[in-house]
Amino acid sequence: MKRKLVVAAFIAGGLSSPLALATSGYFSQGYSMKEFGMAGVGIALPQDSLAAATNPAGMAMVGDRFDVGLEWFKPNRSTTITAPNPGAGNYDGNGRSNFFIPNLGYNKMVGSDMSLGVSIYGNGGMNTQYNTNMFGGQGPAGVNLQQLFVSPTWAMKVAPAHSIGVSLNLVYQTFAATGLQPFAGLSSNPSAVTNQGTDTSTGVGVKLGWTGEITPMVTLGATYQPKTKMSKLSKYSGLFADGGNFDIPATYGAGIAVKATPATTVAFDVQKIQYSGVPSVGNSNTAGGPLGAPNGMGFGWQDVTVYKLGIAQKIDSTLTVRGGYSHNNQPIPSSQTYFNILAPGVITDHLTLGATWTLADKSEVTLGYMHAFKKTVNGSGSIAPAFGGGEANLSMSEDALGVSYGW
């Protein structure tokens, strides 16, 4: 009963907690603290009951587990507008700068070869709040996007060291925008561009995965999540293409984990995020139809390939330490920076550290830390003469610290 109350409280908190993820574009760097400490690797290295967020097949390999965690996330976002724009100057987008992101997982083995579980996590998000409005609109300018996944998962061992799995992704998404009045003239529905409060949408998708031990030292994994169709954000039907459409992009990836020594594991993942497949994200904001139209302007994001490298070192029976580094290509071209003042997901490089302490009752406490190095994208032809000319230069860095408890 106590655990059921914890789960209920967690779900309620997760639905109401603002998320501000902006790492590999706007996806999370890692979903559990163990993954987090290794730069998010996990396709071939399941470690806990949040494994399904990365590869559902891993749930058959982690046994009976319950994990709950909380991440403190602090992004630092800023913009510089250059002359001759009448709004030339430096702008701070940190009207809100501290965010708390929960996660939870539960897994139960059904016999020795099958598992049923659920993983609950923030898939992604973006938040900005510029108290000084560089667009010339009324009030602060900014957006708040949140995506919460609740993923019931089935996994099965098809051989002693090989498993397959599938997650049913139940997605809840919220969005709000303020201070964008100057963009109403570019919209097919000017009354649904900004200051409409928080809107919500829902969707159902799937994630498929496989993992298998090739040799006693080498494990491989692969995963695929097709695009998730979301209901429309109708309050912002004049902002997002196709009348408020904001789907979850398709992703796929592969990974390898190598047991270099009995105490050392090195893992490497490659992940592809297809932002261009979602018109409201991938369509150019310097060409195309009006905002909100069937093929309307978007944020101009390119597809992202993420490379993640992590290492776990077992010090003794009670302590394991971790480290990792990840790199992705730039999702925001220099020509698309002006509209992306609202969504400056320009980060490309992350460094992570982590550790797990096993307690006397076989429960665990895990810590993870991430630093995303400051990245600046300078605009090139980014502000049209109708909006004053000049360029928009975007900068962002991030820090995050998290803790989880598992048993």
The separation of the N and C termini measures 16 Å
The CATH class label is Mainly Beta
Helix content: under 10%
Radius of gyration over C-alpha positions, nearest whole angstrom: 21 Å
The CATH architecture name reads: Beta Barrel
* Poorly predicted runs of 5 or more residues: 14-18
Q: Report on the biggest sheet.
A: 14 strands, antiparallel, barrel
Question: So, the CATH homologous superfamily?
Answer: Outer membrane protein transport protein (OMPP1/FadL/TodX)
Rounded average pLDDT = 94
Strands, total number: 15
What are the defining features of this structure?
mainly beta; Porin; 407 residues; elongated; single chain
General description of the model:
The protein is mainly β and 407 residues long. It has one domain: Beta Barrel (Porin). It is 7% helix and 47% strand. The chain has a 14-stranded antiparallel beta barrel with strand order 1-3-4-5-6-7-8-9-10-11-12-13-14-15. Strand 5 (141-159) and strand 6 (162-178) form a beta hairpin. The two termini are 16 Å apart.
Quick description:
The chain is mainly β and 407 residues long. Helix content is 7%, strand content 47%.
Q: How are the SSEs ordered, and which strands pair?
A:
Blueprint: H1 2-16, H2 33-36, E1 65-81, E2 89-92, E3 99-110, E4 114-130, E5 141-159, E6 162-178, E7 199-215, E8 218-225, H3 241-244, E9 251-261, E10 264-273, H4 279-282, E11 304-314, E12 319-328, E13 349-358, E14 364-377, E15 392-406
Antiparallel strand pairs: 1-2, 1-3, 1-15, 3-4, 4-5, 5-6, 6-7, 7-8, 8-9, 9-10, 10-11, 11-12, 12-13, 13-14, 14-15
